[in-house]
Amino acid sequence: MDSNRRRLQFDFTEEALQELDDLQRKTGLATRAELIRHALRFLQWTVEETYESGGTLLVEKNGRLREVVFPFWNTRRPEEPLVAANHKDD
What is the DSSP letter of 22? Predict the structure, then answer.
């Protein structure tokens, strides 16, 4: 193993594993590990894009603008006070 790599092990429910495999098939990625690496990159990009506003604007194919909000993670700045959430952590 490359000295720059570290092995991680994840436990998935059968349902979560099926979702992972479905995403792998839909994206055409060769391995689950490759899918997880792409998902991590996508999450990094999304957090960067939504850090200030909690959402981002996407241009649809027909030219209309659509705001997509990702409410399932905290986009507050570390120096902002934590507001009580009205949802339970998953």
Answer: H
DSSP secondary structure string for all residues of 58-83? EE-TTS-EEEEE-TTS----TTSPPP
10 near 18, Cβ under 8 Å? Answer: no
59 within 8 A of 65, measured Cβ to Cβ: yes
* 13-58 pLDDT per residue, tens: 999 999 999 999 999 999 999 999 999 998 888 777 777 766 666 6
Q: Give the start-to-end residue ranges of the domains of the chain.
A: 14-69
What is the enclosing helix (H) or strand (E) of 4?
none
Q: What is the C-alpha to C-alpha distance for residues 79 and 90, in angstroms, rounded to an integer?
A: 24
pLDDT in tens, 66-77: 777 666 655 455
In angstroms, the CA 29 to CA 16 distance is: 17
